[in-house]
Amino acid sequence: MIKLVIFDMDGVLTSTTDEHFNAWAQLFLKYYQIKLDPKLEVKTKGVSRIDSLNVLLDHYQIVCDESVKQELATEKNEQYQQFISAYDESHRLPGIIRILDYLKHKDIKMALGSASKNGPFLLKALKIDAYFDYVVDPSLLKGKPNPDIFLDAAQHFNLDPKECMGVEDAVAGVLAIKRAGMIALGLGPEDLSLADHQVKTFPELTLEKLEDLLKGTL
Ligand code: BG6
Ligand code: MG
């Protein structure tokens, strides 16, 4: 039986994928006069800020030293924070409250397992922070697709990974959940074939299906 559900933030609790990518796009236009190929967005999903930057620099074969990378990452984050500064409960992805209420009613613990350092800000802005028993701090952990973010949440509650389920919209995230040895619920339009079950949106997830996932009978 699942005792802990670990949620990703971007693309799971709120839709910030465009905001992350648009912030990178502004930066690349400003400093390199490059219009980012929208197909690159999927490769930056779920991976840390610096790993996302490296994906983009590598694609365009741009070489720069670590201090320049840090400056670029900082400026991207400032732009991203401007984009999300007015976020409120209207920016929750549809159907999440039904799921969070159901898990709470079943006494199942909830954690945030996001690669984003802006996760705690968004939990508060969306007014769902009260549901969460633990927030993983990604800053000292290896990023997704490494399993560390998910394992950290399990360890916090002294749970076996088999007693945990992760919810993810990104390929790197689902890989991280499976590497952690947990049940993976995939969400969104990506092809998440490694997930144990996938729905395009939360309203599509019936409580019967959720119950099967929680019991491990799916
Ligand atoms: C993930 C996003 O959730 O967080 C990535 O999908 C992003 O696109 C990563 O790079 C890190 O976010 P932040 O807010 O710490 O730059
Ligand atoms: Mg995500």
Short description:
This protein is α/β, with parallel strands linked by helices. It contains nine helices and six strands; from the N terminus they run E-H-H-H-H-H-E-H-E-H-E-H-E-E-H.
Describe the structure.
The chain folds into two domains: 140 residues, Rossmann fold (3-Layer(aba) Sandwich); 68 residues, DNA polymerase, domain 1 (Orthogonal Bundle). It has nine helices and six strands. The protein has a six-stranded parallel sheet, with helices on both faces. The longest helix is centred in the middle third of the chain and has 18 residues. The model has no long low-confidence stretch (mean pLDDT 97). The protein binds 6-O-phosphono-beta-D-glucopyranose and magnesium ion. The site of magnesium ion (MG) has 9 residues, from loops. The site of 6-O-phosphono-beta-D-glucopyranose (BG6) has 17 residues, from helix 3.
Low-confidence stretches: none
Our count of domains comes out at 2
Radius of gyration: 17 Å
Helix content: 40-55%
Report mean pLDDT, rounded to a whole number: 97
